[in-house]
Amino acid sequence: MPGYRKLGRTSSQRKAMLRNLATQLLYHGKIQTTETRAKEVRRIAEKLITLAVKEKDNFTTVTVTAKVPQKDRDGKRIKVEENGRKVTQYNEVEKDIKKDSPTRLAARRKMLSVLYPVTSTPKPDANGRIRRKRSESKPVDMASLMFDKWAPRYSGRNGGYTRIIKMGPRRGDAAEMVLLELV
């Protein structure tokens, strides 16, 4: 007997589906799916959270100077004419950045090999409509989300980061539906 469920799909389809479900679970905090899928996604998600908990404090803080363009009130770059050309004006700013240790970098790459890229969309306006503009959509760094949000939350816990709540059968095919959520 294999160590995993086949879920009636080819291996590439199954891996893609499980990666997508794991990504959505870790981004939103809960998903609704069938019981057998939830049990497989739980295995993946718990391993990733354990990895994040182990490596959450394994970094050094480094101060660097960075050139940041000056901007006007509208958010546009200020340009000054020098030698007959328009050149952007820059300020030097000191920033503190986190430099990953080699093991944390390996953990980050392992997470990114499993999780899909996520793009956050803007919140609904007063009328409840979501206006999707490309400029308002931002990519989400899932590895940083794991280290900054989920790892501190579960640092005192030894496994058992997810909960499965049964919701009853699905209408179409009577498959047992569950709510898989992070505790």
Your description of this structure?
The protein contains four helices and nine strands; from the N terminus they run αβαββββαββαββ. It has 183 residues and is of the alpha+beta class. The strands form four sheets. The protein has a three-stranded antiparallel beta sheet. A hairpin with a 2-residue loop joins strand 3 and strand 4. Helix 1 packs across helix 2, helix 2 packs antiparallel against helix 3 and helix 2 crosses helix 4.
Please give a handful of descriptors for the protein shown.
183 residues; alpha+beta; three-stranded antiparallel β-sheet; two-stranded antiparallel sheet; 35% helix; extended
Tell me the layout of helices and strands:
Blueprint: H1 11-28, E1 30-34, H2 35-55, E2 59-69, E3 79-82, E4 85-88, E5 90-100, H3 102-114, E6 118-120, E7 138-140, H4 142-153, E8 162-169, E9 176-182
Helix pairs in contact: 1-2, 2-3, 2-4
Summarize the structure.
The protein is α+β, with helices and mostly antiparallel strands and 183 residues long.
- Spatial extent as radius of gyration: 22 Å
Strand order of the largest sheet: 1-9-8
Relative strand content: 25-35%
Kindly report how far apart the N and C termini lie. 30 Å
Strand segment tally: 9
Mean pLDDT: 93
- Helical content class: 25-40%
> What is the molecular shape?
extended
- The secondary-structure class comes to alpha+beta
Question: How many DSSP H or I helices?
Answer: 4
What characterizes the major β-sheet?
A: 3 strands, antiparallel
* Regions with little confidence, pLDDT below 50 for 5+ residues: none
Question: From N to C, what is the helix and strand string?
Answer: HEHEEEEHEEHEE
